TrEMBL record:
<feature type="transmembrane region" description="Helical">
    <location>
        <begin position="121"/>
        <end position="150"/>
    </location>
</feature>
<dbReference type="InterPro" id="IPR017850">
    <property type="entry name" value="Alkaline_phosphatase_core_sf"/>
</dbReference>
<dbReference type="GO" id="GO:0005886">
    <property type="term" value="C:plasma membrane"/>
</dbReference>
<feature type="transmembrane region" description="Helical">
    <location>
        <begin position="21"/>
        <end position="42"/>
    </location>
</feature>
<keyword id="KW-0464">Manganese</keyword>
<dbReference type="InterPro" id="IPR012160">
    <property type="entry name" value="LtaS-like"/>
</dbReference>
<feature type="binding site">
    <location>
        <position position="420"/>
    </location>
    <ligand>
        <name>substrate</name>
    </ligand>
</feature>
<keyword id="KW-0479">Metal-binding</keyword>
<protein>
    <submittedName>
        <fullName>Phosphoglycerol transferase</fullName>
    </submittedName>
</protein>
<keyword id="KW-1133">Transmembrane helix</keyword>
<keyword id="KW-0808">Transferase</keyword>
<feature type="domain" description="Sulfatase N-terminal">
    <location>
        <begin position="255"/>
        <end position="543"/>
    </location>
</feature>
<feature type="active site">
    <location>
        <position position="305"/>
    </location>
</feature>
<dbReference type="Pfam" id="PF00884">
    <property type="entry name" value="Sulfatase"/>
</dbReference>
<feature type="binding site">
    <location>
        <position position="479"/>
    </location>
    <ligand>
        <name>Mn(2+)</name>
    </ligand>
</feature>
<feature type="transmembrane region" description="Helical">
    <location>
        <begin position="54"/>
        <end position="75"/>
    </location>
</feature>
<feature type="binding site">
    <location>
        <position position="263"/>
    </location>
    <ligand>
        <name>Mn(2+)</name>
    </ligand>
</feature>
């Protein structure tokens, strides 16, 4: 009798165990496949070759088992729920990444989550990134719900040794995935700045795990940094050709500086026509009457506009993840406003958005801005707003009286906003018809660019009327791309050629216009980027302070080496364009052997690394005098 009971018990135990493993296996397969299909088809990751396909397929397996293992351990008696929870959370994480990807063509990183203050203004953009078929991201969850619902609950306690064996298998799977990725792409995880490449090789879930590890490491860097770290960064900076003086050194000494950040303005619209009409008639005319750099690239990362501000003011690179404006507000920097203070300049930023957006209120203090004219200084109504807020024409108009209160000379930055994704406009502001590709973002982009152009024209007239023109110089630059990689099809139609990675890199050009009243216009085709703005501007003003901490060069200097580094480690130099792990001949866009780009890859990586080290370690605190002078310690 007793023997029978025991054998029955054993049988039922083994049944239970089997059921448990069956549930685990079932959930693993459903979540794994769901993750695979979503990451393969919802992101545009340009997967090429069998190896990449295989990695895509295999890489969600380890992370799925890991999450299920942990969840089963926590919910020992509710394993249905554990499976459903993991499935739901996995899909939710994928969905959030997909929406972020549609907007930024990038994956979420932990520091992006610090950007809670950036919530206003996103409203209209969010609606345009949701698609009805996003519901299918949750297919796995619904399948599990269907399969598990109404079934007899499986009450199983997993015997401990089994559990350890299970985890050992999972750990091996994870390690194999990561090791395969590292073998195929050496230094992928230790030195790569290209998140798409990382996700392609280890998958979305593993990527988030990696991101977690990397960011926890980053947090400790400041604590462990010491002055010797800065010494090596300084000797790197000193090795670079420092003695580059342009013939224009001091040409604008003592002048007011207008710095105009042109929202989402890409270079390809310049001198281009749509339906027989110029898209940027005023900018074209201004460019002809100015120094116009047509091979100038934005270098921003996840911090978008704020990254461009950081780069332009500090001549340092933005961070590989997150926005410096959010993650390193407490650091010491030597920014243009701080340098100019010594020369009697007053600095101000004009931007009709909330002061907290991109953490500007805090970061502007750190960078030494004397004034920040945020939204609260403007009269913003339903009537004068569109898209993200106050229309550019009203913004510039209302900025004039504020500007006129400033003592001269001033360093005044104006950040435009209307030409922001999703490119909304009022019918009366449409001075040009939209394009007709059927892709609303691309089509409307031209209309809002044209609107900005007109607003700028009015502003320049007002500056002249106020008598400020002659004593000023004007620096205008596009802050970052407006049309992301997700619109290749429509862009191909506009440009009349396929958007290869080479073309995509070329699309990162933004206009840089330096207008000095009295100087004749000239188009300069030297390759440069936003880090070059600061040294160029300061040299025009006859100032060399800050040269020793600049990662960029004066664009007018004749012995400067033309070079533009992208935040993901891609670069453009005189002869090559390196992007998406392909080396291109810059002249004709043909693919050439990778070896030709190796020196450039090395150079770009080294520069980015030193800049990152300075920010992560807050290294400038070791060499700058105490605030507010920010002088260099003697
Ligand atoms: C918001 C404006 C736009 O204040 O700078 O931000 P973006 O999304 O372009 O970074
Ligand atoms: Mn912007």
């Amino acid at each position: 009798m007793l023997g029978k009971d025991l054998s029955e018990l054993r049988r039922s135990e083994s049944l239970n165990r089997l059921s448990h493993w069956r549930l685990f296996a079932l959930a693993t397969i459903v979540i794994w496949l769901n993750t695979y299909v979503v990451q393969r088809y919802y992101f545009d990751l340009s997967i090429t070759g069998l190896y990449q396909e295989w990695m895509m397929l295999i890489n969600p397996l380890g992370s799925t088992m890991l999450m299920l293992g942990i969840a089963f351990l926590i919910f020992r008696r509710r394993q249905h729920i554990a499976a459903l929870a993991v499935s739901f959370l996995t899909s939710a994480l994928l969905a959030v990444n997909i929406w972020y990807f549609r907007f930024y063509n990038d994956f979420i990183t932990l520091p992006v989550l610090y950007q809670k203050r950036n919530t206003n203004g996103l409203g209209s953009s969010v609606v345009t990134i949701l698609e009805w078929f996003d519901l299918f991201i949750f297919t796995g969850f619904f399948v599990l719900l269907f399969l598990l619902y109404g079934r007899r609950r499986i009450r199983v306690q997993l015997p401990r040794p089994q559990l350890y064996k299970g985890f050992a298998v999972i750990a091996c799977l994870l390690l194999i995935t990561w090791a395969m990725a590292e073998v195929a792409r050496p230094q992928l995880l230790s030195r790569s700045f290209d998140r798409q490449l990382i996700v392609k090789n280890i998958g979305t879930m593993n990527y988030h795990l990696y991101d977690l590890v990397m960011n926890s490491r980053m947090e400790t860097r400041r604590v462990f940094a010491d002055s010797t770290d800065m010494e090596s960064a300084q000797s790197y900076l000193a090795q670079r050709q420092q003695d580059v003086r342009s013939p224009l050194f001091g040409a604008a000494e003592g002048k007011n500086v207008f710095l105009i950040s042109m929202e989402s303005l890409q270079g390809f619209v310049m001198y281009r026509e749509l339906n027989g009409q110029a898209i940027t008639p005023y900018l074209n005319a201004l460019a002809q009457d100015s120094y116009y750099f047509d091979q100038f690239y934005h270098q921003t990362g996840q911090g978008k506009t704020s990254d461009s501000e950081f780069i332009v003011d500090n001549s340092m690179f933005a961070l590989p993840s997150g926005a410096v404006f959010f993650t390193h507000t407490q650091n010491r920097f030597l920014a243009t406003p701080q340098i100019l203070k010594k020369y009697g300049y007053t600095s101000a930023s004009f931007h009709a958005n909330d002061a907290t957006f991109w953490n500007r209120d805090l970061m502007y203090d750190t960078l030494g801005y004397d004034h920040f004219f945020d939204k609260s200084y403007y009269e913003v109504t339903e009537e004068n707003s569109v898209g993200w807020g106050l229309r550019d024409k009203d913004f510039f108009e209302q900025s004039m009286p504020l500007l006129q209160q400033l003592p001269q000379p001033f360093y005044a930055k104006f950040i435009s906003l209307t030409n922001h994704f999703p490119y909304e406009y009022e019918p009366e502001d449409a001075l040009i018809d939209p394009a007709e590709t059927g892709d609303a973002s691309v089509d409307n982009y031209f209309v809002t660019v044209r609107y900005f152009d007109e607003a700028l024209k009015h502003f320049m007239e007002q500056v002249k009327d106020a008598g400020l023109y002659e004593d000023s110089i004007f620096i205008l630059y596009g802050d970052h791309y407006g049309i992301s990689e997700n619109h290749k099809k429509a862009m191909a139609e506009i440009l009349g050629r396929e958007i290869t990675p080479y073309e995509q890199a070329q699309l990162q050009r933004v206009p840089l216009i330096i207008h000095i009243p009295g100087h004749e216009g000239k188009t300069l085709s030297t390759v440069g980027g936003q880090i070059d703005v600061r040294p160029t501007l300061l040299h025009l003003l006859g100032i060399t302070d800050g040269d020793h901490l600049s990662f960029g060069y004066d664009l007018f200097a004749e012995n400067r080496v033309p070079f533009a580094i992208f935040r993901d480690g891609s670069f453009v130099n005189e002869d090559h364009v390196y992007t998406s792990e392909i080396c291109y001949n810059r002249a004709d866009g043909s693919e050439i052997e990778l070896a030709a780009c190796e020196p450039g890859i090395e150079r770009a990586g080294t520069a980015l690394n030193y800049s990152d080290e300075i920010i992560y370690g807050d290294l400038l605190r070791f060499i700058l005098d105490d605030a507010p002078t920010n002088a260099i310690k003697q």
